[in-house]
Amino acid sequence: MKYSTGSVLSSRLFFQVSALLLPLVNGAVGLVGAETGGGGYQATGIKITEPTASTVTIWTRVTRDAERAGDDRPLPITRLFDRATGAAVKLRENASFPTVRPELTFPVGTDFGSIRGAAVGAPGQTRVRYRDSRGGAWRETVWRDVDVSRDFTAVFSLVDLPAAARLVVAVDSRPREGAATTATVLGGFVTAPLGWANVAAKFCVMSCQQYEDRDLATGFAIYPAMQSVGPDFFVNTGDVLYYDHGPVIAVTAELARYHWARMFSYPTLREFHSRVGSFFMKDDHDVLSDDSHPGGSSGDFTFADGLRIFREQTAPSEPPYRVIRWGRHLEVWLLEGRDFRSTREQDRTQVPTILGAAQIAWLEKTLAASDATYRVVITPTPMVGPDRLNKDDNYANQGYVIEGTRIRSILSRYANLTVITGDRHWQYVSRDVVTGIEEWSVGAASDAHAGGWSETQPRPEHRFLRTKYGGFLSGEVTVTAGVPALTFRLHAVDGAVVFASTKAAAK
């Protein structure tokens, strides 16, 4: 089978083409399988991750039921007790509980699979079929058992793909070997153009997605808004979910997986992640708790558990710091801010680090080696800020001023470099007063989750400041008469553009 390696089709055209092709798969578009309780379903959908010019990863999971449990279902009750004294400890948000023993009680007649929003996993098999969006023969993987020890997931690596191509995927599931297919999830993605290709590119970036602050009955409005932009790829900068918020705080690994299942079983997330290649970064709340460090714990849930479950649920490449090359003009660096961070104990005796020596050396080397027209560095936490004085978790804070000064100095060597940050719940564009580095903060995933700064208190370094509403960022490389330009846009959660700026290529 031959695939086109020509120019990238627009996302709008891809969805139109896919709408014609996908009904040919098992006779339906989307999630096939309407019965409940028989197993072999995919209530948490699929994730298409780490697309390159020739490879992509397809994350799959088998669930017991075809759909998530309703939001009218009851919640479990979590109680905490001090391990030494047995005294009851009150649950609090934005906190960890390293010295407690958790006790979980389910309402009568419920379990992990029937509480509010649940989409419990089940044994079964999955396979992936894929082809060019314009037609042709299907390729398929072999059926594989999901890994019961990894939340009933299976990950497929597709290789030898054509560059700059739109592909359609169909993920089939069944409860056991030899059984009929129970469900099929349909979707698609685009592979990256080759590094020399003088082509356009478009991507979206979001952050800070708290379950309790969702704004639709079907999940979050930000997802269809981002999808309408037609991104070639998507980056989540971290805080994909909040283990330490809401009535069900993750103090066990089972509760952590429940957080993932209830979030990604919402239709808006299932639809988006079946249609757009994604790169997932982590921060603090989606590893353990607010401002968490290596070595931390909360109940029976540890920081190491959080790292393991994040990899289990998002299928990132390793090491977690990596680059995305998307044609001649765009290279994107994804930084890792938790794995290599110094512990709280180390911070008392040494210069605190966020990135660690190996990642800093990699960043410096790869930035210097890049021949891309535009360099974009995406970081889970701010490098420029400004940030609030009561925080001490990022390079905009005093506790990391030594390493932060060094990193900003490295970045300032490159004229066409822009920093994009997550973590802060307000949108801003700021320019460092010393180095001139520009940083764009994407804001929170919903209006209800926005805040943390006041628009009545702008700083001299602010070019733009929006604090009361959530949103996302899009970046777009255009090439006109052979001349590239990169436009950044900050959007509201409904997709409306609230600020934009275009960078012409440096002479």
Main sheet makeup: 7 strands, mixed
N-to-C terminal Cα separation, in Å?
43 Å
Quote the CATH topology of the largest domain.
Answer: Immunoglobulin-like
CATH architecture of the largest domain: Sandwich
Can you describe what's shown?
- Helix content is about 15%, strand content about 30%.
- It is an alpha+beta fold.
- The protein folds into two domains: about 1-190 and about 240-275 and about 290-315, Purple acid phosphatase-like, N-terminal (Immunoglobulin-like); about 200-240 and about 320-505, 4-Layer Sandwich (Purple Acid Phosphatase, chain A, domain 2), CATH 3.60.21.70.
- The protein has a seven-stranded mixed sheet with strand order 17-18-19-20-22-21-23, with no helix packed on it. Strands 14-13-12-24-25-26 form a six-stranded mixed sheet, with helices on one face.
- The chain is globular, with a radius of gyration of 22 Å.
Labels describing this entry:
alpha+beta; Purple Acid Phosphatase, chain A, domain 2; 2 domains; 6-stranded mixed β-sheet; disordered N terminus
Short structural summary:
It contains 8 helices and 26 strands.
Write the layout of secondary structure elements.
Elements: H1 11-21, E1 47-49, E2 56-61, E3 77-82, E4 88-89, E5 100-105, E6 125-132, E7 139-140, E8 144-145, E9 153-158, E10 166-174, E11 183-190, E12 201-206, H2 222-229, E13 233-236, H3 253-264, H4 267-273, E14 277-280, E15 297-298, E16 301-302, H5 303-314, E17 322-326, E18 330-334, H6 344-347, H7 357-369, E19 374-379, H8 401-411, E20 417-421, E21 427-431, E22 438-442, E23 462-466, E24 471-480, E25 483-492, E26 497-504
Parallel strand pairs: 12-13, 13-14, 18-19, 19-20, 20-22
Antiparallel strand pairs: 1-2, 2-9, 3-4, 3-5, 6-7, 6-8, 6-10, 10-11, 12-24, 15-16, 17-18, 21-22, 21-23, 24-25, 25-26
Helix pairs in contact: 2-4, 3-5
